[in-house]
Amino acid sequence: MDQAIETLAEFHLVDQVDGAENLRSLCHGGPWWRTVHPHLAAARMASAESRLRRRLFELNTRRDSLTALASVYTARPQERAGAAETVEVVDALRDVISLIEQASAECEHEMITCQPGGGRPTEELEQAVARDTALLDRGVRMRTLYQHPARRHAPTQAYVERVVSAGAEVRTLTDLLGRMIVFDRRIAFLPHHQRRGGAVVLRSPAAVAFLCGAFDRAWDLAVPFGAPEHAPVAVDDLRQVILRLLSQGLKDEVIARRLGISLRTCRKHIADLFQELDAESRFQAGYLAATRDLLRDTPAS
């Protein structure tokens, strides 16, 4: 009996009694069934078939869309990976610090840094000492470039003394290409152009190789940090760059910021240059420097 009811229900020829009538059926020990006219059963099957066809159409449409996406996905996997893996913009300083600490811990061969401006903040130097000495203890080569004014910054002098005694190499240059840290010539950290404390993390081999090449050229032109006999050379180099920037028409504020020196120090050098050249204006100083072949090539960014 149950099998017969199940077969009839499958063809929509019977259905259960519901509502108040079903309450009466429950009192007799089970559900009651009633017969359905074959025409009505056929209509119900047609409605179910229509819903099924709509569902099949939706599934086929989605399958076609996924097939089209799959062809794009498999055709350019390198470009897809490159966009996700070669450049990363990090806004928060704490996240930047975490990434640098991770890269430092994974560094095996070399770390190079470029630190434009004058001396670095004391707190930043204190944090760097532990990280950098740990690198040096593992046999990692460390090279750092500062601008010449950092020589006169006491906290930077103390930091350099500690890391150099541990095996680091530090040099100074008049003009640097910009702030950066590179680990194993594999991953580079550059400052965010808008968010203070943020960074751009580069993993593109071509971009990192370009930055390392620029660093190596600047390194070859730089002066070892802390050697007193090199101080006159550093000052001479500084004035050469000031002359070049003056000849380009840059203002005192711009020159001072670019060279990492105070505005007062910059103007003192400019006044000394004017006196040495016997010039009364920037234009005249640039002209006299050019006619006397004083604007020789100098390391620049």
UniProtKB/TrEMBL annotation:
Residues 242-289 form the HTH luxR-type domain. SUPFAM superfamilies: C-terminal effector domain of the bipartite response regulators. It comes from the Bacteria. InterPro entries: Sig_transdc_resp-reg_C-effctor, TrmB-like, Tscrpt_reg_LuxR_C, WH-like_DNA-bd_sf. Coiled coil: none annotated. Pfam families: GerE. PANTHER family: HTH-TYPE TRANSCRIPTIONAL REGULATOR TRMBL2. This is LuxR C-terminal-related transcriptional regulator.
